[in-house]
Amino acid sequence: MAAESPNDTRLMDIHIKGAREHNLRNLELRIPRDKLVVVTGVSGSGKSSLAFDTLYAEGYRKYVESLSTRARQLLEQVKRPEVDFIHGLSPVVAIEQRAAAGANPRSTVATVTEIADYARLLWSVCGEQFDPIDGGKIERRSLDDCIRRVYQEPDNSRLMLLAPLMTARASVIREEIPHLRQKGFQRVRIAGTIYELNDAEKFPSQPGELELEVIVDRIVLREDQRSRIADSLELTFHEGKDRALVLAQENRDAPWKEIRLSRALAGSKSGVVYDPLTPRHFSWNHPEGACETCGGVGQTRQFNEQLLVPDPTKSVKKGAIKPLRLGSKAMIIKHNAILKQLAEQMPFDPNVSWEELPHETRTEILGGTGDRLFSFKLKKGNSSPEALPWNGVMDLLDDIRRETSSDGLRARLMAYQVASECPSCHGQRLNARARNVLVNGKRFTDFLSQSIHDAHDFVSQSLLGDERLKSAREALIGLEQRLGFLEEVGLNYMTLDRSYATLSGGEAQRVRLATQLGMGLVGVCYVLDEPSIGLHPYDNEKLIQTMLDMRNRGNAVVVVEHDEATIRQADWLIELGPGAGAHGGEIIFEGTPKECETHPKSRTGPYLSGQRKLMKDVKDRNADYGRLTVLNAREHNLQGLNVGFPLKLLTVVCGVSGSGKSTLVNGILAKAASWKLNGAKQIPGAHDGIDGLDHFKSVIRVDQSPIGRSPRSNPATYTKIFDHLRDLYAKAPLSKVRGYKASRFSFNVRGGRCERCQGDGQIKLDMQFLGDVFVECPSCHGQRYNRETLEVRFKGVNIAEALEMTVDEAMALFKNIPKIHERLQTLSAVGLGYVKLGQSANTLSGGEAQRIKLSLELAKRQQGETLYLLDEPTTGLHWEDVQKLLDLLFQLREAGNTIILIEHHSDVIRLADWVIELGPGGGVNGGKLLYEGKPAGLKKGSSSNTGGNAVQRSGKEIRD
To answer: How many DSSP H helices and E strands does the chain contain?
Structure first.
């Protein structure tokens, strides 16, 4: 290779040579700087291996190398990417899809973007405080302010000035009396009664704590007594630690009036003294701010009637209240006895079905009857009955859950509980003190409950120009900027208090993208993993413009992406292929998107040019088979919708991000169907009912949640292929000679696994303030098993080598083993032929996890009458892989099943049998039914954002 000239413009590129990670075939390429570079290709072609496992991994390694000696010692154990060199590499920032996975349930959009930090500072510095006890203003008064308050009473009023000292037991109060005598005081008030200090024998002696106040002065309110009142009040504040109680009597026949004063921060009416506000008071992760009931989570677990009584056709006597049949035999007998006695005394008929009992009776059985007493004989023998209040089955079960020593019983009881809104803070997480601080009329919790768009308007229009908030101007500017960045990436519909763990992979990635925008870095290489996931094409413009802005600041932006609009906006396009797994790993195209359209080897170009497009090989169907109808759906932002899904058709639910699609399909329909058809213990969102579920035998939900949270989970274990593999290797001749059973080939139990890594194949290193780093186990070299287990082979391949095979490779090896081959075929059919059987579940994208779940269902015998619900199944798929997926879905439809997809892909919408669009906006601006009907009738109009080719429309507008 010729020597590079110092003036060669290519030195501005990132030069990668000899990239061999995973399936990459010794690649050499240059990634231009200060450009938007898109890496595309069919699924499994090596895009992530190039962008993340090579480019980002080497950047991470070089960064750690610049740290302390301790970090460098650990670095020697970290596997270096399989690459000869990468020249011209600047600091690399990776923003992946899996950002939200495993997130702390306390984390919200506001906390991860630092918006909550700025808002806490603003509310603690500029907030107007109100007393949670009586709504009076909390303020700090000077001595002059307190004197003015006293002189608001009528002239010649009789006054007593008292200093609150303590609240303690009578014995402690008596010990304090000699100290008060030494100070010259003569009278005290104990528990509201005045006593002379010399009459100690008359002091109360009742149990419990009593309030002690010393009388500092008695005086008549006149103008000439102002000086004496001021001196006495100052002494009162000194003794009462900045608190004073003034008793005023207008005349001898009038009652005494209490006036509580304080020079500290205190309520103007109650006189209760409060600590000065700090940002911690607005943090639900700190005791000073968290709600006392829920600990700052915003939810408490409570027993639910629908779960407690799963079969309302049963009677109480026959076990309608199911969890009362849990526990030991003695416990069950006791519960039956309680119900029998309760039925006699309430009364109610225990032989009548639960649904036939009056609503009031059912409520009293579960929730209690207040103060009403019942005679319960809870012990055997001649013991007399005990008169006890009935607090309800829920309270009884809650006591059992708290007091039992059995973890199993506690876990089973928790299955009958649901996370419900905290009754104290109503889901706002903060205590009453923090919830009663206002800035420009808004509480801190009100601010966080707004959508990002509304919060941005509030800060920019109401707060930034307010002269009263000058002291917190820096916090206001930080708030305004970060809210603006979130709007730029298309998240304007999202509320600030939304739990971070509930975000989709694409949403979490865009939140992190907005955070990076706020940092304003220059000269950085950003690596993004399909940021358009979950984003409606109509909203794509903002996201693409954000990436272009990052590029224009002087950063290299490398995006792994399949989205057509993003590809068309790229300055440089790199396509890997031509196939997946062992058939991929080559660069089949480098250049501009326009050049890609006519490139002979490209598999993306024909779709960009329009020469190829997605098709369906089955006939269109009309909606002639009935409807599955959701009635009055009103959960979250849904505005009382009645939505009908045609039976035996493929229906797409679309709409802009945040319009209510997931709430309708996942939050209501899926949970209600799972409850009725599968017996799942899930409470659906607010609606009046669902007509048409009797047409189905089962419901299958295929979402993007992980197939397992442990690195031990993998496609082989999830699809049960691993069970068949272990049985197969247990039948090998060497296994029979040595007496190996199937458990020998499990890496979850002792015997056959490597004990140094306990079957993980890798060891976790503690990198202190950095994220955990996993390195290959030096004993088994990542193979998970010990040497003896690996000596057992099938056709020359041991169990570890089998798990390292891709699905397509394994299909050839196990073609004569039907139980294994059939399941491998379904994995390949959903476009996962490139995935390794033993690939850790936590390295799979949401789309890959969803297709693995789909393959497991496809492997089962199809009998029709099944409801399939899928959440954006095209996530992470190239056009050719989408075609395979559509073929499978229409195959399910032809078998008599009903398929409902949440989807943004314009070609999938075009090929669907039926389309339902929600909108018109996100959040409070969504939740309405804009269109239902055949795709051909979906025209771009005043209300529809999906009509027409939204993908091409958004791309063209940006370029122009």
So the answer is: 35, 35
Sort 484 into a burial class: Cβ within 10 Å, 0-12 / 13-18 / 19+: middle
Q: Cα 715 vs. chain centroid, distance in angstroms?
A: 24
Give the residue, 10 or 275, on which the prediction is more confident.
275
Q: Which residue has the tokens 């030195």?
A: 11
pLDDT in tens, 889-944: 898 898 899 999 999 888 899 999 999 999 888 778 889 999 999 988 876 544 56
- Which of 788, 818, 843 is at the close of a domain? 843
Strand 373-376 versus strand 556-560 pairing type: unpaired
What is the sign, positive or negative, of the torsion defined by CA atoms of 141, 142, 146, 152? negative
Domain range enclosing 698: 627-704+883-949
Positive or negative: CA dihedral 593, 599, 605, 606:
positive
Whether residue 959 is contained in a domain is answered as no
- Closest Cα to residue 915, out of 894, 938, 939, 889? 938
User: Is residue 778 classed exposed, middle or buried when 0-12, 13-18 and 19+ CB atoms within 10 A define those classes?
Assistant: exposed
- Output Rg (C-alpha) for the chain, integer angstroms: 35
CA atoms of 394 and 107, how far apart (whole Å) = 30
Contact 14, 33 (CB under 8 A): yes
Helices 359-367/393-403 angle, 10° precision? 20
Farthest CA pair distance, the chain: 112
Q: By C-alpha distance, which of 885, 835, 849, 601 is closest to 46?
A: 835
Cβ(610)–Cβ(903) below 8 Å: no
Domain boundary among 820, 843, 866: 843
Q: Provide the CATH number for the domain around residue 51.
A: 3.40.50.300
Residue at token pair 């949970």: 671
Measured between alpha carbons, how far is residue 861 from residues 171, 718, 721, 864, 895 in Å?
80, 18, 17, 9, 11
Question: What phi-psi label fits residue 706: left (phi over 0), alpha (psi between -120 and 50 degrees) or beta?
Answer: beta
How many Å apart are CA 887 and CA 848, to the nearest integer? 17
Concatenate the DSSP letters of all residues of 819-887 into one string. Answer: HHHHHHHHHHHTT-TTSBTT--GGGS-HHHHHHHHHHHHHTSPP-S-EEEEEE-TTTT--HHHHHHHHH
Q: What is the SS3 assignment for 558-584?
A: EEECCCHHHHHHCCEEEEEECCCHHHC
Q: Is the pLDDT of residue 528 over 70?
A: yes
- Is 194 in the same domain as 244? yes
Q: Render pLDDT for 199-212 as a digit per residue (tens, 0 to 9).
A: 878 888 888 888 89
Q: Whole-angstrom Cα distance, residue 719 to residue 741?
A: 21
Rounded to whole angstroms, the Cα distance separating 86 from 934 reads 52
- At residue 98, the pLDDT reads 55
Distance CA 561, CA 955 (A): 14
Geometric angle at alpha carbon 664, from 658 and 669, rounded to 5°: 155
Q: How far apart are CA 225 and CA 150, in angstroms?
A: 12
Which whole number is the average pLDDT over 408-425? Answer: 86
Q: Is the dihedral of CA 152, 154, 156, 161 positive or negative?
A: negative
Under 8 Å between Cβ of 128 and 438: yes
566: confidence class by pLDDT, cuts 50, 70, 90: very high
List the structure tokens of 471. 């002291």
SS3 337: helix
Among 192, 188, 190, residue whose Cα is nearest residue 179: 188
Whether residue 193 sits in one domain with residue 143: yes
Q: In what order do the strands lie in the sheet with 689-691?
A: 641-646, 627-633, 689-691
Extract the tokens encoding 279. 């940002």
Q: How many CA atoms lie less than 13 Å away from 48 in the CB half-sphere?
A: 17
pLDDT at 71: 61
636: left (phi over 0), alpha (psi -120 to 50) or beta: left
Backbone angles phi, psi at 438, to 5 degrees: -115, 140
Answer yes or no: do 682 and 731 share one domain.
no
